[in-house]
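Q: Predict the bound structure with flavin-adenine dinucleotide.
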Amino acid sequence: MSHTYNYDLFVIGAGSGGVRASRIAASHGAKVAVAEEYRVGGTCVIRGCVPKKLFVYASQFSEEFEDAAGFGWTVGETSFSWEKLIENKDREIDRLNGIYIRNLKNSNVEIFQSRAYLKDAHTVHLVAEGRDVTADKILIATGGAAFKPDIPGIEHAITSNEAFHLTTLPKSGIVVGGGYIAVEFAGIFNGLGVETTLLYRGEKILRGFDDDLRDGLTEEMPKKGVNLVTNNDIVSIAREGDGLVATLKDGKLLRAGFIMYATGRVPNSHGLGLEALGVKLKANGAIEVDPYSQTAVPNIYAVGDVTDRAALTPIAIREGQAFAETVFNDNPIAVDHSIIPTAVFSQPELGTVGLTEAEARAQYGEIDIYKTSFRPMKHTMTGRHEKTFMKLVVDAASQRVLGVHLMGPSSGEIVQAVGIAVTMGATKKQFDQTVAVHPTAAEELVTLKEKWKAPAA
Ligand SMILES: Cc1cc2nc3c(=O)[nH]c(=O)nc-3n(C[C@H](O)[C@H](O)[C@H](O)COP(=O)(O)OP(=O)(O)OC[C@H]3O[C@@H](n4cnc5c(N)ncnc54)[C@H](O)[C@@H]3O)c2cc1C
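A: Predicted complex:
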């Protein structure tokens, strides 16, 4: 490696992608440093996947207490302390943050607690230290940022960042957005007893997901108490006493204790000096990279949310790993983004892998659909009217299973396992050859016999 630079690799951003890339590059003998302006671990660990899932667990107890009655339990008076939840969550996040820092140090990666930007293709300016360091290769792994639209009174609204640190939990709230973060937070607040409105400007929540999952969740969320409002938007926000009042597009007023925007995230590519160096950005700010995560400037690479390929932690980790293998181990790896199993921790939960029905029809023409909808066994005793839904999208010609879409308890867990079969290119027949696990919900995936036919118009 070069001897004229301070480092072989300088990574900007110690999140999912940056941490993995740093450690793997260092394990191959590179001299590596990483700069982090906030907290090591990044969005997923500090204010994303992890605390979000902890909140989902917290929010599910209210239903569990209710459901217990059907099984003979009498649950005494219950109460919930938001302060306690935040305190315990913060302790767990501190623990994980410590582990990430230790792992980097044990891998001989130097950490700078500082914002960093590029002065030229090999020079990094460390803002907190007021000095420059140089590196042969640069990796931009700065992630994405929550986005709030520019409307009057927007300063009163929060994003998911602040939702993790509210000092008190208001009695009512509005979550704006229709993506997975919006539906997850609507479920969290609703389960914690907040009178929750999910407000989405489009026709149907969860754009990009299979239509049956979109319709399924649209039906189930209101049953749990979420006030789902679509085709509407907030045009302005004002403070009113202790709370907020939102004026909607249709002129109606909506009052709430807080308003949280989850209307998409933007790649964190600005203020890094990239444009001046010739690194190409897309219209939304995403850094353009080739399949090996190389930008238009040959020694500068980018991975994770800042490249907007698929904004998920396991993808950022894979891209970081592939970059380090390619550049520091002479082992070129291009991440395959074609089949991505993923979960939405809504209530009920969603799990999805592969093509949606609409995508499969567009790409394969003739396809077979198998689907089923049923009341989960547990709710035969609780009396809860909640549906579980499962769907297989199959290529009619090859019989390969192109997509699996699930709604119901543990869908995230189920889709991780069934994702292996879909990634391997399993056929419907191979699904059928798999022995069922009984009694489970997932056994439906290997016992679906009848092709679904659209009802006659
Ligand atoms: C509320 C929420 C829930 C989510 N839930 C899930 C989930 O359930 N499953 C899932 O797979 N994904 C989830 N995600 C997405 C996931 O968090 C991201 O895809 C992942 O963190 C991306 O990793 P990254 O390395 O690209 O960036 P990040 O993890 O965002 O890390 C980037 C880091 O760079 C730092 N940084 C930025 N600019 C600079 C600079 N100039 N100098 C120094 N440091 C800088 C930031 O502080 C940050 O720590 C969630 C995201 C959010 C917001």
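A: The pocket of flavin-adenine dinucleotide is lined by residues 12-18, 35-38, 42-44, 48-49, 52, 115-117, 141-143, 160, 181, 268, 272, 304-306, 311-314, 316 (CB under 6 Å).
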